[in-house]
């Protein structure tokens, strides 16, 4: 199901990473991004591959990647249910 690193296209090497882009060059930098559904899909796959190589596929791995994923899930579920929780917080109970 997953793709190997050789199947995922890398962004052009001559392009600067986001943290090296000056504020005035930001619109041109964003214009060079591939925002098609396939480009976005491969960007997420590259990020997933980097995450796994950095935290999961290591010699002496620990609980850190799973704790990060659990924390991210907890934060997302809180954000998704915030409107419902907000109404419960404002309700007065006798």
UniProtKB/TrEMBL annotation:
<dbReference type="GO" id="GO:0031966">
    <property type="term" value="C:mitochondrial membrane"/>
</dbReference>
<keyword id="KW-0496">Mitochondrion</keyword>
<keyword id="KW-0066">ATP synthesis</keyword>
<dbReference type="GO" id="GO:0046933">
    <property type="term" value="F:proton-transporting ATP synthase activity, rotational mechanism"/>
</dbReference>
<dbReference type="GO" id="GO:0045259">
    <property type="term" value="C:proton-transporting ATP synthase complex"/>
</dbReference>
<keyword id="KW-0375">Hydrogen ion transport</keyword>
<keyword id="KW-1133">Transmembrane helix</keyword>
<feature type="transmembrane region" description="Helical">
    <location>
        <begin position="63"/>
        <end position="82"/>
    </location>
</feature>
<dbReference type="GO" id="GO:0042776">
    <property type="term" value="P:proton motive force-driven mitochondrial ATP synthesis"/>
</dbReference>
<dbReference type="Pfam" id="PF10206">
    <property type="entry name" value="WRW"/>
</dbReference>
<keyword id="KW-0812">Transmembrane</keyword>
<keyword id="KW-0813">Transport</keyword>
<comment type="similarity">
    <text>Belongs to the ATPase F chain family.</text>
</comment>
<protein>
    <submittedName>
        <fullName>F1Fo-ATPase synthase f subunit</fullName>
    </submittedName>
</protein>
<keyword id="KW-0138">CF(0)</keyword>
<dbReference type="InterPro" id="IPR019344">
    <property type="entry name" value="F1F0-ATPsyn_F_prd"/>
</dbReference>
<keyword id="KW-0472">Membrane</keyword>
<keyword id="KW-0406">Ion transport</keyword>
């Amino acid at each position: 199901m997953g793709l190997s690193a050789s199947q995922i296209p890398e962004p052009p090497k001559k392009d600067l990473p986001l943290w090296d882009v000056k504020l005035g060059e930001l619109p041109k930098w964003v214009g060079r991004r591939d925002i098609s559904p396939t480009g976005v899909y491969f960007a997420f796959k590259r990020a997933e591959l980097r995450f796994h190589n950095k935290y999961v596929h290591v010699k002496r791995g620990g609980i850190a990647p799973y704790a990060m994923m659990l924390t991210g899930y907890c934060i997302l579920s809180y954000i998704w249910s915030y409107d419902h929780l907000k109404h419960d917080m404002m309700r007065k109970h006798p």
